[in-house]
Specification:
This protein is 40% helix and 17% strand. A 4-stranded antiparallel sheet has the order 2-3-1-4. The structure holds uridine-5'-diphosphate. Uridine-5'-diphosphate binds next to α4. Its EC number is 2.7.4.6. One of its GO terms (molecular function) is metal ion binding. Keywords: ATP-binding, Cytoplasm, Kinase, Magnesium, Metal-binding, Nucleotide metabolism, Nucleotide-binding, Phosphoprotein, Transferase.
Length: 139
């Protein structure tokens, strides 16, 4: 069932580089409503759990290292067709392949350090949102 919600993280590279405000502005301008949001710092165990689906991939160690090197901003976003529209807003995983004007084209530096996360399905959006937020933090 479509939930009309997605989950995002502004990743450590974008937070470090001072892009949090500009990214939130793009999200707001695209019509997403913030259901929940916080700045947090993932532990190694958090990142290994969150990205468990990638644990056999060659970049897994690097990804965990990257996602734990500094704070992130995690948020649950709401909008009609949220998952798909947010993936369009952020652009391709590799910023070199991302469309002009997308968040990754504007703010990412590499395929690994690519500024933002966006859930890839309604099911994962619900799982990922619940990973970071309790029901009492969603409004
Ligand atoms: N990633 C990486 N190297 C790669 C592919 C992915 O470091 O060759 C990282 C990157 O940060 C990416 C995350 O792993 O966002 C998850 O990969 P996925 O293929 O699910 O891409 P996404 O859904 O984030 O676009």
């Amino acid at each position: 069932m479509a939930t009309n919600r997605t989950f995002t993280m502004i990743k450590p590279d974008a937070v470090e580089n001072g892009h949090t405000g500009a990214i939130l502005e793009k999200i707001n301008a695209a019509g997403f409503r913030i259901v929940a949001m916080k700045k947090t710092h993932m532990t190694k165990r958090d990142a290994e759990t969150f990205y468990a689906i990638h644990n056999e991939r060659p970049f897994f160690g690097e990804l965990v290292e990257f996602m734990t090197r500094g704070p992130i901003v995690a948020a649950i976003l709401e909008k009609e067709n949220a998952v798909e529209d947010f993936r369009t807003l952020i652009g391709a995983t590799n910023p070199a392949e991302a469309a002009e004007g997308t968040i990754r084209k504007l703010f990412a530096t590499s395929i690994g350090e690519n500024a933002v996360h966006g859930s890839d399905s309604d099911e994962n959006a619900a799982i990922e949102g619940s990973f970071h937020f309790s029901g009492r933090e969603m409004f």
